[in-house]
Design goal:
CATH class of the largest domain: Mainly Alpha
CATH topology of the largest domain: hpI Integrase, Chain A
Largest sheet: 3 strands, antiparallel
CATH architecture of the largest domain: Orthogonal Bundle
Distance between the termini: 54 Å
Number of strands: 3
Strand order of the largest sheet: 1-2-3
Strand content: under 5%
Structural class: mainly alpha
Helix content: 55-70%
Length: 303
Amino acid sequence: MKISLAIEEYLAQFQLSGVKNTETSYKTRYAEFKGFILDNYGDIEVEELTAQIINAYQLFLKNKGQGANTINQKVINVKSFLNWLVNVDILEHRPFNFKQIIKIKVPKRVKVHYLTEEEYTKMISEVTYSDEYFTLRNRAILILIISTGLRREELLTLKFSNIKNNSLEFMGKGSKERVVPLSEFAQQILNEYIAVRNQKYGTESPYVFISRNGDMIAKDAYQYMIKKALKVIGRESERPHVLRKTFAYNYIRQGGNLFELKEILGHSDIKTTEIYVGISDEQKREGVNRINFNFGVDILRKK
């Protein structure tokens, strides 16, 4: 039996069911598959269907911009059609082993962790030490990361020479310069901290944030400090990286765009930035509604 006739007979069963929506839905699903077969292979016999043809169909759908879940569902529809052919004795057996069909992997949705404004405000305000310098230093560290999205290494190795024109400048891979702007508030906090730091320890060390001994802060000490701060708000299970993600989330939430954020965070691939932020459907809608194209009220009726 020709593929076009077989699909028509398969769809006829849904006409008999009397459910209009089901009939229309299945016609739409199989029209695309039928069109692909006829355009690329002609009206072949159903026995001539192969796994290679189905895999080519998947590539066709992918090139149209369809997602993995959609493609996998359409392959399930094709399998149902082939099973029906066997069940009604049009075919003696399936024309190929279904295991030969390549399954499109569905990208895992990464749950983005970030702190709310209430959480990070409480966390910062409750960082206190008997030595006022360490209270100010640790609060400045937390504020700087949440305000800029700095990586741990960038924070620990931050030197006075990196602070230029109200920004932080870093040299990345391939000698590519990266500029991280400082908000007015971040500048203020940093300046207050530096004044106390220089008064207490002098200006001999090139590092902005230093330990009790005047050395660069050790990674372990940094990890402990961040974990202790997170514990205050009951988020001790989070990795310190949550502070960087908090910056990214709020940057987008408050009107920034992914391309700018990619540069600030130092990502080489914007897909990393997309996963990093985890933009919700609600945020996408809000973003669309913020755009005003100003077509004019009467443009549809204008003659």
